[in-house]
Amino acid sequence: MDQNQIIEAVEKMTVVELNALVKAIEEKWGVSAAAVAVAGPAAGGVAAEEKTEFNVELTSFGEQKVAVIKIVKEVFSLGLSEAKTLVESAPTMLKEGMKKEDAEGLQKRIQDVGGKVTLK
Prior knowledge:
Order of helices and strands: HHEHHEHE
Largest sheet: 3 strands, antiparallel
Strand order of the largest sheet: 2-1-3
Number of helices: 5
Strand content: 15-25%
């Protein structure tokens, strides 16, 4: 019996039959179908601090290079030539240590015009 045949057989089962199947599998292999809890904080119960500063890397300017150049020019107060050189050198680090909100805002603006940005 292959995987597709098994899936077809399961699809045809009633809720009562499926429940019996699950119980049989649990008993046969000593497993549980109970939902697995999501892992909690790191060992020791101390939650990791949320990162507040990010490095913003332009990984690609996409098909709208001019739009990305305009955004970079505006956000970083660069001249047109400087912004063009920076964008065309992708992948390149646009800014290090940006506040989370500013980094996410810049990422969204660039992605909205087809560019690709990675926050690190």
